[in-house]
Amino acid sequence: xxxxxxxxxxxxxxxxxxxxxxxxxxxxxxxxxxxxxxxxxxxxxxxxxxxxxxxxxxxxxxxxxxxxxxxxxxxxxxxxxxxxxxxxxxxxxxxxxxxxxxxxxxxxxxxxxxxxxxxxxxxxxxxxxxxxxxxxxxxxxxxxxxxxxxxxxxxxxxxxxxxxxxxxxxxxxxxxxxxxxxxxxxxxxxxxxxxxxxxxxxx
Length: 203
Hints:
Layout: H1 9-27, H2 34-41, H3 45-52, H4 55-80, H5 85-99, H6 101-109, H7 120-136, H8 145-164, H9 176-202
Helix pairs in contact: 1-2, 1-4, 1-6, 2-3, 4-5, 4-7, 5-6, 5-8, 5-9, 7-8, 8-9
């Protein structure tokens, strides 16, 4: 076992986060533990708790890295896109979930102790995702972009889960693309209807 003096606290933090991400990517979240992280970096589990304070705190740091990675993935998609950013984001959500399945799933499989508060720096990362989606939503009178972003995100997440667990047949869909496109098309139709109604109300 390495001694605590072998690395600084900052170095231990980075080593543990990197090891945790690697373990989750390779084996999934079901078998994940702080003890595995400690063993992988050659320290005791007590050292992990000393550095992070708790299992949940360790995972907040791990998930934050995943959220950063995911955000950068989607931003790169948006920069390459020539049009239809909303559809690009929706497709990008499903693609990231597929290519980084274990990391993505760990975000939703981790159930923290309810006595553990969610750090503000972690909340800011989540808000950044919704802000990115809100920026792609067309302005329509009578519609709330924040609520629309939440509903769209939930819908896309559901499609991802059905697709990646092989359950698309439950809703009679052949591909996740078909469902994503239908979701966006229906949303855009709703935006247009809201716009027409607003014009009639103002007439």
